[in-house]
Amino acid sequence: MIGSLIFRHYSSVEAEEITEQLIALYLDVHAGQGDFYGEDRYRRQLSAHRQRPGWVLVAAALNEELIGYVYGFPLAPDTRWWDGIEEPVPVGFTEEDGHRTFAICELLVRAQWRRQGVARALHDDLVRSRHEQRMTLLARPDNGPAQAAYRSWGWRTVTRLRPGWPDAPLFDVLVRDPGPTG
């Protein structure tokens, strides 16, 4: 069925048209996972992230129904992405210049579409489009399926980080070279 899916890249401006769908999918995926995953916080996060230069979203739809998406942006020199990182980290690990690191902020797929290659297809589509030296994302240590998928896709864990958002969980910090997606 993945062949029937339509994958589309959106700029920040283009994504405004589907903001409510993005939020609805996020809330569906994270239902019952606590206050951190609430609508107000995610709406603020999405709005703030969309303002970042180079922000891009790849969405998967079937019959015009959004079933998954991934988005991110390059980290600017003054990024707060690394705030809350646990030491030690390699020297220079958190230094950014706007071209070094692309941060994947969300990779979400509706429950009925999981384990069918949708997340991998979204991931690979986004990764192939990037030119930064490396990529990073945050994953909950207790999310076994996501952790296993990321490892199989070439990601490695470097340390942990707790974002400055209220009620934020602790996340593993993963990185990968942007090369072939295998």
Automatic annotation (TrEMBL):
<dbReference type="GO" id="GO:0016747">
    <property type="term" value="F:acyltransferase activity, transferring groups other than amino-acyl groups"/>
</dbReference>
<dbReference type="Pfam" id="PF00583">
    <property type="entry name" value="Acetyltransf_1"/>
</dbReference>
<keyword id="KW-0808">Transferase</keyword>
<dbReference type="InterPro" id="IPR000182">
    <property type="entry name" value="GNAT_dom"/>
</dbReference>
<protein>
    <submittedName>
        <fullName>Acetyltransferase (GNAT) family protein</fullName>
    </submittedName>
</protein>
<dbReference type="InterPro" id="IPR016181">
    <property type="entry name" value="Acyl_CoA_acyltransferase"/>
</dbReference>
